[in-house]
Here is the input.
Amino acid sequence: MPKERADQDGDDPLRAPEASRHRKVLKQAGLISTSRRGRYRSHALDIPATATLGADLLAAFLR
Here is the structure.
């Protein structure tokens, strides 16, 4: 089961404004989807889009 960001451990926690900016960029790139349940939002990584990104990046280096 996914953890909420507030529950995740780490020495260098990502602050809310930074997390928001990262989510915005990932969403604009089509790499995550967001669903809403009441006041909570759930973000999910789009695995096929992420896999394509890796292939596109590799192709760009091989040109």
The helical segments are 16-28, 47-62.
